[in-house]
Amino acid sequence: MKGRLSLIILLVFFSVFLFSQNTRASDVDLLINEIYPNPTSGEVEWIEIYNPTNQTIDLTNYSIEDGTHKPKALFGMLCSGCYFVIEKNPDGFSFALNNDKEIIILKYIDLIVDQVAYGNWDDGSVNPDENFQAPSQGKSLSRIPNGENSGQNKNDFRVLIPSKESENILPIFSSLIRINEIIPQPSTGSLDEFVELYNNSSQDIDISGWQLDDIDGGSSPYNIPDGTIIESGAYLVFKNQTTKISLNDSGDSVRLIDPNGDIKSIVSYEKAKRGQSYSWFFDAWKWTNLTTSGSENIFQEEIILPDEDLFIEEALISQVRELPIEETVKVIGVVSVLPGKLSSQYFYIEDESGGIQIYSYHKSFPFLRLGDVVSIVGELAEYKNERRIKISSESDIQIISSRSPPEAKKIKIDEINERLEGRYISVTGTVTKTSGNVFYIRGSGEIQVSIREGTGIKKPKMRVGDRVEIAGILSQYGDYYRILPTCQDDVKIIKSSSLAKSGMNLYLSLLITGLIFFLWNIFQKVKKRLQRLPQV
Predict the structure, then answer these.
(1) Cα–Cα distance measured from residue 8 to residue 16, given in angstroms and rounded to the nearest whole number
(2) b/e string for 221-245 if b means 16 or more Cβ within 10 A?
(3) How is domain 25-160 classified at the CATH fold level?
(4) What architecture (CATH level 2) is domain 411-495?
């Protein structure tokens, strides 16, 4: 009995020893405070760590790594309120900070103390609500306010001028620069599209490093060059041939953004009027026949004549998908996914020939039910290689009748192609990778499955090797396809994997099993020796 008790005490002691090191990081609060991933010529990349606590912290057992998992051990003592900067050099970290997207992880032994992601993570492995834009050359990602952590990186970091080993301070920029006039569809061609700014202050204002951006056009933001100054009461015009910002004829938004990332001015329109500019008049935006690039806006109302020849011929969805972008089209289809499920800005319909996304920038839809038969009139568009029909207003959707919702079309993964894009489909396969609400399955091919928050789907506990049946909308994003489930029944595990454990769990299990076996052998040897001793 005493021998068994001794064995139990030894096992408990060793288990506590094994896991005691992993609780250390919960007592500290080091932060990744600033990241400089895109240096100017002659500079190096660096990462700044900050100690916001009231005690000095020993950096032994801390390390920094990126998504390639090449950890660099930290060293030294970091005093309260102090900064520790590690650079990319032979004495610092060896991995390269990507300019487009990256994740930086600060660890204490094997526990994550802090992590920051930036850029566009199309694979869904990083929560899109958490990440933010990658900094341009010569700018850093700075935690604002300095050393404070709300738990949401997107809110905590700004793109600023670097402040290495010093406090991050948010500069103040004027709120008196506004967008004053835009022309989305000039009669002379798209190169003459322009955005006009106006300085409504009594001082000249330097807008170097500010950005112009269109929300729905897919254009890259335009960085206003250094040395750009708008004089008091003056206008400044930026043409498409310089900015490369293309404003959509069917509706778009233009934003003026200061170097802090704050929107200083924004204007939205639903549908462009050819040859007219959209201009600010004292208290309202109005379309005017007179464009006044670089000068005060003048209102001249459009004379509207009835268009008796306007007629849009109805077509099958598969036929519409083959038409040129910006063509006005009309289709009839059955609602397969409601607005708000996969996105607040779109839903899907399908007919016997195919499926397609219906998009509204202003989220303007009538009340719809699954199975509603609707007539859609809109402009054919494309986003990330997926075709969509863009509508301007709720009146572009007419509800004709109602029927049973479409059933998922069962296919093999290797049959997925452009013809099935936008359709509600069903496939079976084996889970090959899983992370958060994104996982991959393989059957006759491999495909990504992404669960959107708006669906309310609770992802079942799954692991690599599970056999699953997945239904959802087939969506294209860039150069790959993905399935977007729409309800809980769309994600089913039909056979669990026999692989019970993997990774660190498996390693710990083997370690503990081996330890028990080792201690048991020692116990048996001690027991035998005690039995051989002469009895008193």
Answers:
(1) 12
(2) bbbbeeeeebeeeebbebbbeebeb
(3) Immunoglobulin-like (2.60.40)
(4) Beta Barrel (2.40)
- pLDDT at 311 (0 to 100): 63
Whether this model's pTM surpasses 0.70: no
Pick the CATH number of 177-288 from 3.90.1010.10, 3.30.700.20, 3.40.1160.10, 2.60.40.1260: 2.60.40.1260
pLDDT in tens, 158-200: 888 899 999 998 888 999 999 999 999 888 878 889 999 999 9
What is the secondary structure of 79-92 as a DSSP string?
Answer: -TT-EEEEEBSTTS
Number of other residues whose CB lies within 10 A of the CB of residue 277: 25
Angle at alpha carbon of residue 240, lines to 238 and 242, rounded to 5°: 70
Write b or e for each residue in 349-369: b if 16 or more Cβ atoms lie within 10 A of its Cβ, otherwise e.
bbbebbbbbbbbbeebbeebe
Distance from the Cα of residue 470 to its chain's centroid: 23
Burial of 416 (0-12, 13-18, 19+ CB in 10 A): buried
Mean of pLDDT values over 22-51: 81
Residue 166: count of CB within 10 angstroms of its CB? 11
Q: Where are the domains of the chain?
A: 25-160, 177-288, 317-402, 411-495
CA atoms within 13 A on the CB side of 305: 3
What are 447-488's pLDDT values in tens digits?
999 999 999 999 998 999 999 999 999 999 999 999 999 999
pLDDT tens-place string over residues 356-381: 999 998 898 999 999 999 999 999 99
> What are the residues facing 428 on neighbouring strands?
469
Q: How confident is the model at residue 99 (pLDDT cuts 50, 70, 90)?
A: confident
Tokens 């233009």 identify what position? 254
HSE, CB side, 13 Å, CA atoms: give it for residue 460: 21
